[in-house]
Amino acid sequence: MKLIFLGPPASGKGTYAQRVGPKIGVPQISTGELIREEIKKETEHGKEAKPYVEAGQLIPDNIVIELLQDRIAQPDAEKGFILDGYPRNIVQADALEGMASIDKIINLVVPDEVVIYRLSGRRSCKKCGKIYNVNTLPPKQEGVCDDCGGELYHRADDTIEVLKDRLKVYREKTEPLIDYYKKKGIVADIECNQADIPPEIVVEKIMNALE
Q: In whole angstroms, what is the distance from residue 189 CA to residue 184 CA?
């Protein structure tokens, strides 16, 4: 099964994808994580992408498309995948058409005030990428990943100032994708109106939409 999780920044795409993936036997592919790994390794793609990440802007399409092509060609994605953070505009969606046939779009409908609340507490594991939230989904031990023991950190682009820019970009560039995919009849809207709703409840909604 090939899925796309759409939603504004800090809407929970990564959190839910990490939980749905094992249930349906496919990997979560976060283009954000792919890009941050390129930046960490100081590759050419990473150096080119870094200023865009720091400013909350979209990464140039050619970089994201190349990274995604390489990732979905790996053996673990042969039976399907969940795309988290891709596509972010119509150009990327058109490019995806040539790579894979998508079965369902999970569109997370989240108010801005909920996004801002979640963002303030979001932490990511430096080692495995698992996402936590000190307000709604804390680790068992403060600052330490439950799964791998890695250090949790607050991403540089997880600030209110950057979020406002990212939300503006999302409204202008990514929201049109909802209509793009609704015309194909494959969009499932998942309402997430509460900041403290347990992830398991949203995951259950998503699994029901996949049946």
A: 14
Which residue among 122, 123, 130, 205 is the active-site one? 122
The whole-number pLDDT of residue 173 equals: 85
Instruction: Read off the amino acid at residue 73.
Output: A
Domain count, the chain: 1
Give the structural domain span for 205: 2-110+172-210
Active site residue 155: yes
pLDDT in tens, 80-131: 999 998 998 899 999 999 999 999 999 999 998 888 888 878 899 999 988 8
Task: Specify the pTM.
Answer: 0.79
Q: What are the φ and ψ backbone dihedral angles of 139, each rounded to 5 degrees?
A: -75, 165
Q: Among 174, 183, 14, which Cα is nearest to 91's? A: 174
